[in-house]
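Colleagues,

For the teaching module next term, I've prepared a clean inverse folding example: a structure given as C-alpha coordinates, and then the sequence designed for it. I'd like students to try predicting residues themselves before seeing the answer, so please don't circulate the second half yet.
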Protein backbone atom coordinates (compact mmCIF):
# COMPACT_ATOMS: atom_id res chain seq x y z
CA UNK A 1 0.00 0.00 0.00
CA UNK A 2 2.79 2.51 -0.71
CA UNK A 3 1.91 5.84 -2.32
CA UNK A 4 4.54 5.36 -5.07
CA UNK A 5 2.94 2.14 -6.25
CA UNK A 6 -0.67 3.29 -6.48
CA UNK A 7 -0.44 3.20 -10.28
CA UNK A 8 0.42 -0.52 -10.26
CA UNK A 9 -2.30 -1.10 -7.72
CA UNK A 10 -4.85 0.53 -10.04
CA UNK A 11 -3.74 -1.65 -12.96
CA UNK A 12 -4.07 -4.83 -10.90
CA UNK A 13 -7.31 -3.84 -9.20
CA UNK A 14 -9.01 -3.04 -12.50
CA UNK A 15 -8.65 -6.75 -13.38
CA UNK A 16 -9.98 -8.25 -10.13
CA UNK A 17 -13.32 -9.85 -9.23
CA UNK A 18 -12.85 -9.44 -5.48
CA UNK A 19 -10.62 -7.37 -3.20
CA UNK A 20 -9.20 -8.41 0.15
CA UNK A 21 -8.68 -5.35 2.32
CA UNK A 22 -5.94 -6.10 4.85
CA UNK A 23 -6.29 -4.00 7.97
CA UNK A 24 -3.62 -3.81 10.69
CA UNK A 25 -5.19 -4.25 14.13
CA UNK A 26 -2.27 -2.65 16.02
CA UNK A 27 -2.94 0.44 18.12
CA UNK A 28 -2.42 3.50 15.93
CA UNK A 29 -1.92 1.44 12.75
CA UNK A 30 -5.61 0.93 12.08
CA UNK A 31 -6.39 4.55 12.93
CA UNK A 32 -3.70 5.83 10.52
CA UNK A 33 -5.03 3.64 7.71
CA UNK A 34 -8.59 4.90 7.95
CA UNK A 35 -7.75 8.54 8.65
CA UNK A 36 -8.85 11.13 6.09
CA UNK A 37 -5.72 10.63 3.96
CA UNK A 38 -5.17 7.01 4.96
CA UNK A 39 -4.26 4.26 2.51
CA UNK A 40 -6.95 1.83 3.70
CA UNK A 41 -9.65 4.33 2.84
CA UNK A 42 -8.10 5.16 -0.54
CA UNK A 43 -7.66 1.50 -1.49
CA UNK A 44 -11.29 0.67 -0.69
CA UNK A 45 -12.43 3.66 -2.74
CA UNK A 46 -10.23 2.69 -5.69
CA UNK A 47 -11.40 -0.92 -5.62
CA UNK A 48 -15.05 0.11 -5.66
CA UNK A 49 -14.57 2.71 -8.38
CA UNK A 50 -12.64 0.26 -10.55
CA UNK A 51 -15.62 -2.09 -10.49
CA UNK A 52 -14.57 -4.57 -7.80
CA UNK A 53 -17.95 -5.12 -6.18
CA UNK A 54 -17.00 -7.94 -3.79
CA UNK A 55 -14.91 -7.31 -0.70
CA UNK A 56 -13.36 -9.38 2.09
CA UNK A 57 -11.86 -7.63 5.12
CA UNK A 58 -8.99 -9.42 6.87
CA UNK A 59 -8.09 -7.87 10.21
CA UNK A 60 -4.41 -8.73 10.55
CA UNK A 61 -1.84 -8.73 13.39
CA UNK A 62 -4.52 -9.80 15.88
CA UNK A 63 -1.71 -11.48 17.86
CA UNK A 64 -0.35 -8.00 18.68
CA UNK A 65 -3.67 -7.15 20.37
CA UNK A 66 -3.55 -10.43 22.36
CA UNK A 67 -6.56 -11.51 20.28
CA UNK A 68 -8.77 -8.84 21.84
CA UNK A 69 -12.44 -9.32 20.94
CA UNK A 70 -13.14 -5.69 21.89
CA UNK A 71 -10.51 -4.44 19.42
CA UNK A 72 -11.89 -6.74 16.68
CA UNK A 73 -15.44 -5.42 17.21
CA UNK A 74 -14.23 -1.81 17.30
CA UNK A 75 -12.43 -2.28 13.96
CA UNK A 76 -15.48 -3.97 12.38
CA UNK A 77 -17.67 -1.05 13.46
CA UNK A 78 -15.33 1.65 12.14
CA UNK A 79 -14.53 -0.23 8.92
CA UNK A 80 -18.22 -0.93 8.23
CA UNK A 81 -18.91 2.80 8.47
CA UNK A 82 -16.29 3.83 5.95
CA UNK A 83 -16.80 1.00 3.42
CA UNK A 84 -20.51 1.87 3.47
CA UNK A 85 -19.62 5.45 2.50
CA UNK A 86 -17.46 4.08 -0.33
CA UNK A 87 -20.39 2.03 -1.68
CA UNK A 88 -20.07 -1.48 -0.22
CA UNK A 89 -22.82 -3.09 1.84
CA UNK A 90 -21.11 -4.32 5.06
CA UNK A 91 -23.64 -7.18 5.31
CA UNK A 92 -22.10 -8.73 2.16
CA UNK A 93 -18.54 -8.46 3.52
CA UNK A 94 -16.86 -11.20 5.61
CA UNK A 95 -14.67 -9.81 8.44
CA UNK A 96 -11.94 -12.30 9.39
CA UNK A 97 -9.50 -11.86 12.32
CA UNK A 98 -6.10 -13.22 11.26
CA UNK A 99 -2.41 -13.29 12.04
CA UNK A 100 -0.57 -13.55 8.74
CA UNK A 101 2.75 -14.00 10.53
CA UNK A 102 1.53 -16.96 12.60
CA UNK A 103 -1.04 -18.25 10.11
CA UNK A 104 -4.08 -17.96 12.40
CA UNK A 105 -7.47 -18.24 10.62
CA UNK A 106 -5.79 -18.14 7.22
CA UNK A 107 -6.37 -21.76 6.21
CA UNK A 108 -7.29 -23.42 9.51
CA UNK A 109 -9.50 -22.28 12.34
CA UNK A 110 -7.36 -20.71 15.11
CA UNK A 111 -7.58 -21.83 18.76
CA UNK A 112 -6.41 -18.35 19.86
CA UNK A 113 -9.80 -16.66 19.60
CA UNK A 114 -12.41 -18.90 21.22
CA UNK A 115 -14.83 -15.94 21.20
CA UNK A 116 -14.81 -15.82 17.38
CA UNK A 117 -17.91 -17.54 16.03
CA UNK A 118 -17.00 -17.04 12.37
CA UNK A 119 -17.94 -14.63 9.58
CA UNK A 120 -21.16 -14.42 7.64
CA UNK A 121 -22.20 -12.64 4.48
CA UNK A 122 -25.60 -12.08 2.96
CA UNK A 123 -25.59 -12.16 -0.82
CA UNK A 124 -28.06 -14.27 -2.83
CA UNK A 125 -27.81 -16.80 -0.02
CA UNK A 126 -26.43 -16.50 3.49
CA UNK A 127 -22.90 -17.91 3.71
CA UNK A 128 -20.84 -18.53 6.83
CA UNK A 129 -17.29 -19.67 7.53
CA UNK A 130 -14.33 -19.21 9.82
CA UNK A 131 -11.17 -18.73 7.78
CA UNK A 132 -9.86 -16.37 5.12
CA UNK A 133 -9.61 -19.29 2.68
CA UNK A 134 -13.30 -20.09 3.20
CA UNK A 135 -14.15 -16.43 2.56
CA UNK A 136 -12.21 -16.58 -0.72
CA UNK A 137 -14.02 -19.80 -1.67
CA UNK A 138 -17.35 -18.05 -1.02
CA UNK A 139 -16.76 -15.34 -3.67
CA UNK A 140 -19.65 -15.26 -6.15
CA UNK A 141 -18.34 -15.71 -9.71
CA UNK A 142 -19.42 -12.64 -11.73
CA UNK A 143 -21.16 -13.00 -15.09
CA UNK A 144 -18.70 -13.64 -17.92
CA UNK A 145 -20.04 -11.95 -21.08
CA UNK A 146 -18.65 -14.18 -23.85
CA UNK A 147 -21.32 -13.03 -26.34
CA UNK A 148 -20.17 -9.40 -26.40
CA UNK A 149 -17.42 -8.09 -28.75
CA UNK A 150 -13.86 -8.78 -27.55
CA UNK A 151 -12.32 -6.19 -25.23
CA UNK A 152 -8.91 -6.94 -23.77
CA UNK A 153 -7.03 -4.06 -22.09
CA UNK A 154 -3.28 -4.73 -22.20
CA UNK A 155 -1.43 -4.94 -18.92
CA UNK A 156 2.02 -5.33 -20.48
CA UNK A 157 3.73 -6.17 -23.76
CA UNK A 158 6.68 -8.56 -23.73
CA UNK A 159 9.31 -9.46 -26.30
CA UNK A 160 10.11 -13.14 -25.94
CA UNK A 161 13.13 -14.63 -27.72
CA UNK A 162 12.22 -17.14 -30.41
CA UNK A 163 8.53 -16.27 -30.16
CA UNK A 164 8.18 -12.54 -30.73
CA UNK A 165 5.75 -9.98 -29.34
CA UNK A 166 3.43 -11.19 -26.58
CA UNK A 167 0.79 -8.77 -25.23
CA UNK A 168 -0.68 -9.75 -21.85
CA UNK A 169 -3.99 -8.77 -20.29
CA UNK A 170 -7.34 -9.86 -18.94
CA UNK A 171 -10.24 -10.64 -21.24
CA UNK A 172 -13.09 -8.36 -20.11
CA UNK A 173 -15.71 -9.34 -22.70
CA UNK A 174 -15.85 -11.67 -25.71
CA UNK A 175 -13.42 -14.41 -26.70
CA UNK A 176 -9.85 -14.43 -28.06
CA UNK A 177 -8.48 -17.40 -30.01
CA UNK A 178 -5.66 -18.22 -32.39
CA UNK A 179 -6.32 -17.31 -36.02
CA UNK A 180 -8.39 -14.28 -35.00
CA UNK A 181 -7.42 -10.93 -36.51
CA UNK A 182 -7.25 -8.37 -33.70
CA UNK A 183 -7.06 -4.58 -33.73
CA UNK A 184 -5.32 -2.59 -30.99
CA UNK A 185 -6.82 0.80 -30.15
CA UNK A 186 -5.87 3.60 -30.10
CA UNK A 187 -2.60 2.35 -31.69
CA UNK A 188 -4.46 1.42 -34.90
CA UNK A 189 -2.47 -1.80 -35.33
CA UNK A 190 -4.16 -4.89 -36.82
CA UNK A 191 -2.59 -8.35 -36.75
CA UNK A 192 -3.28 -12.07 -36.48
CA UNK A 193 -3.20 -13.97 -33.19
CA UNK A 194 -0.80 -16.91 -33.51
CA UNK A 195 -1.48 -18.53 -30.13
CA UNK A 196 -3.11 -17.87 -26.74
CA UNK A 197 -1.61 -18.99 -23.42
CA UNK A 198 -2.56 -18.83 -19.75
CA UNK A 199 -0.07 -19.81 -17.03
CA UNK A 200 2.27 -21.22 -19.72
CA UNK A 201 -0.40 -23.54 -21.13
CA UNK A 202 -1.89 -23.24 -24.61
CA UNK A 203 -5.58 -22.34 -24.68
CA UNK A 204 -8.10 -23.00 -27.42
CA UNK A 205 -9.70 -19.70 -26.42
CA UNK A 206 -9.47 -17.06 -23.71
CA UNK A 207 -12.77 -16.02 -22.08
CA UNK A 208 -13.74 -13.16 -19.71
CA UNK A 209 -11.79 -13.35 -16.46
CA UNK A 210 -8.78 -15.09 -18.05
CA UNK A 211 -5.40 -13.36 -17.75
CA UNK A 212 -3.82 -14.38 -21.04
CA UNK A 213 -0.72 -13.83 -23.11
CA UNK A 214 -1.07 -14.02 -26.87
CA UNK A 215 1.52 -14.06 -29.61
CA UNK A 216 0.94 -11.67 -32.53
CA UNK A 217 2.46 -11.59 -36.02
CA UNK A 218 4.66 -8.81 -37.38
CA UNK A 219 4.10 -6.33 -34.56
CA UNK A 220 7.02 -4.81 -32.69
CA UNK A 221 6.97 -4.15 -28.96
CA UNK A 222 7.22 -0.42 -29.75
CA UNK A 223 3.89 -0.33 -31.62
CA UNK A 224 1.56 -1.34 -28.77
CA UNK A 225 1.65 -0.64 -25.05
CA UNK A 226 -0.05 -1.03 -21.68
CA UNK A 227 -3.49 0.56 -21.75
CA UNK A 228 -4.18 -0.25 -25.42
CA UNK A 229 -7.32 -2.33 -25.92
CA UNK A 230 -7.45 -5.36 -28.23
CA UNK A 231 -10.66 -6.25 -30.08
CA UNK A 232 -11.83 -8.53 -32.88
CA UNK A 233 -11.29 -6.59 -36.12
CA UNK A 234 -14.39 -8.23 -37.66
CA UNK A 235 -16.76 -7.67 -34.73
CA UNK A 236 -17.16 -4.07 -33.50
CA UNK A 237 -13.46 -3.38 -32.76
CA UNK A 238 -12.65 -0.61 -30.24
CA UNK A 239 -12.38 2.81 -31.89
CA UNK A 240 -11.76 6.38 -30.83
CA UNK A 241 -14.79 8.44 -29.80
CA UNK A 242 -15.56 12.15 -29.51
CA UNK A 243 -17.03 11.57 -26.06
CA UNK A 244 -18.21 8.81 -23.74
CA UNK A 245 -20.09 8.52 -20.47
CA UNK A 246 -17.98 7.60 -17.47
CA UNK A 247 -18.16 7.24 -13.73
CA UNK A 248 -15.33 9.49 -12.57
CA UNK A 249 -13.69 9.87 -9.21
CA UNK A 250 -11.18 12.64 -8.42
CA UNK A 251 -8.34 11.81 -6.04
CA UNK A 252 -5.99 14.51 -4.70
CA UNK A 253 -8.28 17.29 -5.93
CA UNK A 254 -6.30 20.56 -6.33
CA UNK A 255 -9.08 22.62 -4.70
CA UNK A 256 -10.27 24.08 -7.95
CA UNK A 257 -10.03 22.86 -11.51
CA UNK A 258 -9.06 25.55 -14.02
CA UNK A 259 -7.39 25.96 -17.41
CA UNK A 260 -4.04 24.19 -17.61
CA UNK A 261 -4.93 21.58 -14.98
CA UNK A 262 -3.41 18.31 -16.26
CA UNK A 263 -4.55 15.34 -14.16
CA UNK A 264 -3.62 11.72 -14.83
CA UNK A 265 -6.56 9.68 -16.05
CA UNK A 266 -6.60 6.02 -15.02
CA UNK A 267 -8.94 3.91 -17.13
CA UNK A 268 -8.68 0.09 -16.88
CA UNK A 269 -4.90 -0.47 -17.33
CA UNK A 270 -4.17 2.89 -19.02
CA UNK A 271 -2.62 5.86 -17.19
CA UNK A 272 -2.69 9.01 -19.32
CA UNK A 273 -1.96 12.66 -18.53
CA UNK A 274 -4.74 14.79 -19.99
CA UNK A 275 -5.85 18.42 -20.16
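(Answer key — instructors only)
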Amino acid sequence: GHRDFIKNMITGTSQADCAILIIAAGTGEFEAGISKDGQTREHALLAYTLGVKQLIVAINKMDTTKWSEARFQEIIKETSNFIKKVGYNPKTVPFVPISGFNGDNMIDNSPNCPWYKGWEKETKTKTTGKTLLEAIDAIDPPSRPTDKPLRLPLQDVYKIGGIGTVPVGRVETGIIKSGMVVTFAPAGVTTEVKSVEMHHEQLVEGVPGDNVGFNVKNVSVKEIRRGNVAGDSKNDPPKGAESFNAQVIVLNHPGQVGAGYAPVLDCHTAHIACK
